[in-house]
Amino acid sequence: MKLKTLSTLVAAGLALSTVSLSTSAAGRLVVYCSATNAMCEAETKAFAEKYDVKTTFVRNGSGSTLAKIEAEKRNPQADVWYGGTMDPHSQAGEMDLLEPYVSPNLDQIMPQFRDPAKRKGNYSSAVYVGILGFGVNKDRLKEKGLPIPTCWKDLVKPEYKGEIQIADPQSSGTAYTALATFDQLWGTEQAFDYLKKLNTNISQYTKSGIAPARNAARGEAAIGIGFLHDYSLEVENGAPLELISPCEGTGYEIGGVSIIKNARNMDNAKLFVDWTLSKEAQEISWKEGKSYQILTNTTAESSPMALKLSDLKTD
């Protein structure tokens, strides 16, 4: 499978062996979470129980979370941002909205996924990897007499008019990743031309990157564009979906975790980052959180439903 590394060119399209963790902690922690609601709940609950920290989360997409953190920069209302694609996290770092932090658990992370934090000023660490693609509802396509698309370019064919959903890039890191992928595959001019054609076939731009997977699973759309681990969950739940890694190649996300600048609960924020990089926390993401990304901790066991790291080709 051919995949491309993402970069900030997308802006043009919009405008772990174990390091011991102390178990003695107290106080509060507020997490802005851009993973699935189930994953957010599982991770924060487990952290709260392990460290006796009263932990709450607010779930929102990456783009919306970035806007919220910026709006609150003079009076931060959360301590940590967990989940969502790395690009918005990096943008937040460049905007001086995050606190630099190098976790002692960083050496548990696969070497190829340690660099994003270093390149971006040590503002964010990588907790998972997700592959971009699309899921197709085989029953809906059969009902309409349509073939299963296998390439990005297939999605702009007129027969798929009104049958495709993708998230809004202004609120979703998933769509942000898609724009970056098209830019890198074809260049900015061709990418914009592609997006204009694709727009004709879009039935809905959802607020969340997860929604197209759920809607395709229910048969509300024939095709949903997003991260394939979201579609794996729907397949496990019995949906008639087929996962497609497009023939031209695709992009991938690195899921981030970052400390918000001037966090009120700084020590607990650092402890949370340390914990999310651990084997225990990363395995909770699928064992309890039902989220099937590729894990970045070298000792963590990934879900049987997850794609393999060997599917990735990094530049």
UniProtKB/TrEMBL annotation:
Q: What is this protein called?
A: Ferric ABC transporter, iron-binding protein
Where is the secretion signal located? 1-25
Read off the InterPro entries from this record: Ferric-bd
Pfam families given for it?
SBP_bac_6
GO cellular-component terms in the record?
outer membrane-bounded periplasmic space
Q: Which UniProt keywords apply?
A: Signal
Keyword Ribosomal protein listed? The answer is: no
The record's annotation in PANTHER family points to: ABC TRANSPORTER SUBSTRATE-BINDING PROTEIN, THIAMINE-BINDING PERIPLASMIC PROTEIN-RELATED
Q: Which SUPFAM superfamilies match?
A: Periplasmic binding protein-like II (SSF53850)
Q: Which organism is it from?
A: Proteus mirabilis
Q: Tell me, what is one Gene Ontology molecular-function annotation carried by this entry?
A: thiamine pyrophosphate binding
